[in-house]
Amino acid sequence: MKNRLKVLRAERNWSQEQLAERLGVSRQTVNAIETGKYDPSLPLAFTIARVTGLTIEQIFDPEENGH
Amino acid sequence: MTVAKSQPSGKVTAALMLIWIVMYFAVRFYLEARPDLASWARLGLSFLPTPVFAFFLWHFIQGIRTADELERRIQLEALAIAFPLGMLLLTTLGLVQRAVELNFQDWSYNHVWPYFAFFYFIGMLIARRRYT
């Protein structure tokens, strides 16, 4: 599943560490999501949406495979 | 929701594992050095490292429960690799033992258990490489 997390993070001038802290996960998790190696759970996807102020559909694209 | 919880220290978990390993080898060498001890004393000594391992296990599980979802996934995949490999080792050794005479000094319980730790680290390596 492709996502725009890296772009959204860059737009907000957040480091992976800062985003990870906001999401309550490790920096490795943020990196794995950004690189498409890991698809987050639904609760984490909702948290990402809340933190970025967007909807899940605006961040994640289920039609495209990020792997 | 995903909330960061206070995570048990990995150093404490590693320290507990180290204490167990030291205790295990101390008991093992002592039992080998003192075959004259009474059976009840030898049996009692055999179980001496068990409470330390139980505490290590409890600490390890607490660590996994409070880890974030990717770390839990990595741990799950590591165990999903290690557990069948452990079964494969034991079943293969069982078959080989029926086929030929195995030297007990080479393939006793004393020598097989480190393979389980080795399989777990192989699993961790594969899982971590996949997600990082």
Order of helices and strands of chain A: EHHHHHE
Number of domains of chain B: 2
Oligomer: heterodimer
Helix proportion range of chain A: 55-70%
Structural features, described:
The complex is a heterodimer of chains A (67) and B (132). By secondary structure, chain A is mainly α. Helix content of chain A is 57%, strand content 6%. Chain A has a two-stranded antiparallel sheet with strand order 1-2. In chain A, α2 packs across α3. The longest helix of chain A has 11 residues. The model of chain A has no long low-confidence stretch (mean pLDDT 93). Chain B has 132 residues and is mostly helical. Chain B has two domains: 67 residues; 65 residues. Chain B is built from six helices and no strands. The N terminus of chain B is likely disordered.
Give a quick precis of the structure:
The complex is a heterodimer of chains A (67) and B (132). Chain A has 67 residues and is mainly alpha-helical.
Brief descriptors of the model:
heterodimer, A: 67 residues, mainly alpha, 434 Repressor (Amino-terminal Domain), two-stranded antiparallel ribbon, 5 helices, 57% helix, 6% strand, globular, B: 132 residues, 2 domains, 6 helices, flat, disordered N terminus
List the helices and strands and how they pair.
The complex is a heterodimer of chains A (67) and B (132).
Chain A: E1 2-3, H1 5-11, H2 16-23, H3 27-34, H4 42-52, H5 56-59, E2 60-61
Antiparallel strand pairs in A: 1-2
Helix pairs in contact in A: 2-3
Chain B: H1 10-33, H2 39-46, H3 50-66, H4 69-99, H5 104-107, H6 109-131
Helix pairs in contact in B: 1-3, 4-6
